[in-house]
Amino acid sequence: MSVEERTASERVLDARMRYVSRGVSTPALVVERAEGARVWDVDGREYLDFGGGIACQNLGHGPETVVRAIHEQADRFLHQCFMVGMYEPYVEVCRRLSESWPSPRDDVKSLLVNSGAEAIENAVKIARAATGRSAVVVFDRAFHGRTNLTMAMTSKLVYKQGFGPLAADVHRAPAPYPYRGVSTEDALHGLELLFKQDVAPASVACVVLEPVQGEGGFIPMPIEFVQALRRICDEHGIVFVADEVQSGCGRTGTMWAIERLGVEPDLIVSGKTLGGGLPLAGVSGRAELMDAPHPGGLGGTFGGNPLSCAAACAVLDALADPGFRARADHVEALLRARLETIAAASPLVGELRGLGTMLALELRDPSPDAAKAVTAAALAKGLILLSCGLYGNVLRLLPPLTATDEELARGLDLLEEALGDASTGAA
Ligand SMILES: Cc1ncc(COP(=O)(O)O)c(C=O)c1O
Predict the structure, then answer these.
(1) Residue 1 CB contacts under 8 Å (≥ 6 apart), including other chains
(2) Three-state secondary structure call for residue 39
């Protein structure tokens, strides 16, 4: 086929194969523009977006106030480096993050960086500086990033195989997974064993937990488990870090998922939707922890970039609006009701679960094959749908909470059709 006969998508895909590392896995979707819950590819095809660039678009693509804030900041200046010339948007994001802390406090401070993984690395640095200890406890199916420390904390082979040696003093405990038979008691027993066999609790700087596991399969941590973990951390002087990179910024209805579990963490790590589509992540916590590192110990050239901070101020304003919570509750009810019907009717689906609008369908078969067939069928029908899970068999829904009811209903229609095609082998 001549170059001219190839579609625009195919031409980009060819160039991608030639110029981009194969280590980055990519779908067959080449985006030209996006707005709200919709994405258009370079050949003019329209898609409903239930992926949100992996949880970055809780407010949809290009929210007006966010785009306006970015334009205004772009006209002022693009970059300073906060360590060279301070600027108000950075401080304003930290002020808003302090106001969003799960309980009323007047001593919450933040650090801003570029990515979720970098924020997790910094949370560990802060916990180590505050406790004088080095060990880190993480959980089965955790995802915390792809940098050297965070790939040791992350629990799927694909993210770390062949990239060692991994960072030392990272210890993994079981996490509850009721659908596959791991109860809260089992998980707590596993932690007890870890503390007897591998690492003394007095050596542990921090425990890092996703209140709703994201890449690991959209598994909400049971309230009894999170509360027990809080008690264990208090007993041993361990810093409790809530990784809210995926579950935070309104995805579960409240600003942070952990608010729904009745626990106040010591540090909250945020990212993804925080920047409204621009790279931004943060670590927040009480001043006594956040001020533990010496001056110069934290920071980076681009961390808290002015454009990202301007965007984040608009994002945090939108999330703080009471109308947002009302909309999130409405979207949760709409999605749940329809997903219950879809789950009951599909022989492929084993469980519907989630917290707020962070909802997923786990397929019975613990292999990625059926989920891959469903996501491929969905894309062919015009729905961007992502899978996740240690076995790759979980379909996760991350539509913007600003999507209209009609868009949500249409996306669910397409999901149902895709499941139908996959179960009859038509996909
Ligand atoms: C819970 C969680 N933590 C950390 C990260 C890493 O974030 P980033 O990809 O921005 O480094 C992710 C990314 O998916 C995540 O879901």
Answers:
(1) none
(2) strand
Amino acid at 153: M
Nearest alpha carbon, ligand 1 atom 16: 246
Reading the block at residue 364, the tokens are: 């019975």
Instruction: Give the model confidence (pLDDT) of 236-253 as tens digits.
Output: 999 999 999 999 999 999
pLDDT in tens, 31-63: 999 999 999 999 999 999 999 999 999 999 999
Whole-Å CA distances, 294 to 134, 220, 298, 301: 17, 36, 8, 18
The atom number, within ligand 1, closest to the CA of 118 reads: 11
Phi, psi of 223 (to 5 degrees): -60, -40
Looking from the CA of residue 244, the nearest atom of ligand 1 is 1
> Which residues are paired to 239 by β-bridges?
206
Please tell me the residue having the least CA distance from ligand 1 atom 3: 144
pLDDT band per the 50, 70, 90 thresholds, residue 425: confident
Ligand 1 cavity residues, CB under 6 Å: 54, 115-117, 120, 143-145, 210, 214-215, 243, 245-246, 271, 281
* Residue 401 near residue 357, CB atoms below 8 Å: yes
Nearest CA to ligand 1 atom 8: 116
Question: How far, in Å, from the CA of 426 to the mean position of ligand 1?
Answer: 34
